[in-house]
Amino acid sequence: MNALRDVFITGTGAFLPGAPIGAEAMEDHIGRIHGRASAVGRRTLRWNGIETRHYALDAEGVPLHSNASMTARAVEAALEAAGLAAGDLDHLATATTQGDYLVPGHAAAVHAELACGPLSIASHQSVCGSALTAARDAWLNVRAGEAGVAAASGGEFSSRWFRPGFYEGTALVDAKGRLRMEADFLRFTLSDGAGAVVMEPKPRPDGLSLRVEWIDMTSLAGRFDPCMWAGSTFADRADMKSAWSHAGPIAAHASGAVALVQDFDLLKIVIRAWIGVWMEKVDQGRIDPARVDHLLCHYSARSLRQEIVSILETTRAMIPETKWFSNLATVGNIGSASIWVMLDEFIKSGRAKRGERILLVVPESGRAMIGFMMLEVV
User: Which candidate, 189, 228, 192, places its Cα nearest to that of 46?
Assistant: First the structure.
């Protein structure tokens, strides 16, 4: 049996579609429900602190890209940064909340866009946390010697689900033409784009690489109903026999069961569950806050960060905010792509120095999951 190998991130890449859209133009770009201004849009933007974001639809709703094409461009950018090409890939692990197809998986679509030769693929579907499940897949393939070059990616095309026609005529819109807040909120929260990393068993001969020390994933789905979901009504979200596929697409759409929604009350509880797992990692010695030089924590809103910080500050798990890096304000929340777009910008900022350790944290409200990834700059 071969010994396990060290694994290094040798390239990072991102793809953000179109020009940045400012906060004042977001609603006109994605469209107004029944031509009316959203009742929660401005409040949501103040809450999340997003100033600009990118959409893969133009203002008329015409798609500029597909999820797969954006993801492929991010993978190509990461490969180029590593001095490689698509033909060098042995394994492709993709993450997304909603791919372009219902079937087959997102990885097959991305592989087709890359137009390279045969390779092994794996599709990981969840919400934000799927970025690290894909990364763990790629890491273990390289670590076990099954792949010499692996890519992990995250890609999202959320805006196609946010156009007015997706909601109008459904149970999510009341008699006054107002969209239910749990759905409307997400229209001002999520953005489009893709990010990727390339992993190899050796660091780059020139420039910086990131040695992957470990990746941990913890699902809390056994404790919670869905907190962010698409495919069921509010009332039946925990009953798999009531999912949209049993009702059929027409009836499910009319009931509002196909749209993406968020349970805010449950989210407040889930936040504390995430922090509980974080504190367990500290108690176990897996995370030593004093030995973390940079923290890249994915969060959907500035106010959510403030709540996380307020809880952590009462514990010994807190990492000083001077060590935190985020680009949420300028690129928005891109779901599974967020952590890789953030890492790419961080590395290109020149802040990382050899010998430093970078902790990536990706909480997911979906049905409650949180992932951690520790990197060493070499």
Answer: 189
Among 145, 168, 200, the domain-final residue is 200
Q: What is the pLDDT of residues 307-360, one digit of tens each?
A: 999 999 999 999 999 999 999 999 999 999 999 999 999 999 999 999 999 999
Per residue in 199-230, pLDDT tens?
999 999 999 999 999 999 999 999 999 999 99
Predicted TM-score of the model (pTM): 0.96
Residue 122 and residue 57 share a domain: yes
Residue 115: C-alpha distances to residues 64, 70, 98, 156, 244 (Å): 19, 14, 22, 20, 34
* 147 and 230 both lie in a single domain: no
What residue spans of the chain are helical by DSSP H?
26-30, 41-48, 67-81, 106-114, 130-143, 181-187, 244-247, 249-254, 264-283, 302-312, 328-331, 338-348
Residue at 255 is within a domain: yes
CA gap 142, 72 in Å, rounded: 20
Residue 39, both tokens: 């009742």
Contact between residue 301 and residue 47 where contact means Cβ atoms under 8 Å apart: yes
What kind and span of H or E run contains 153?
A: strand 150-157
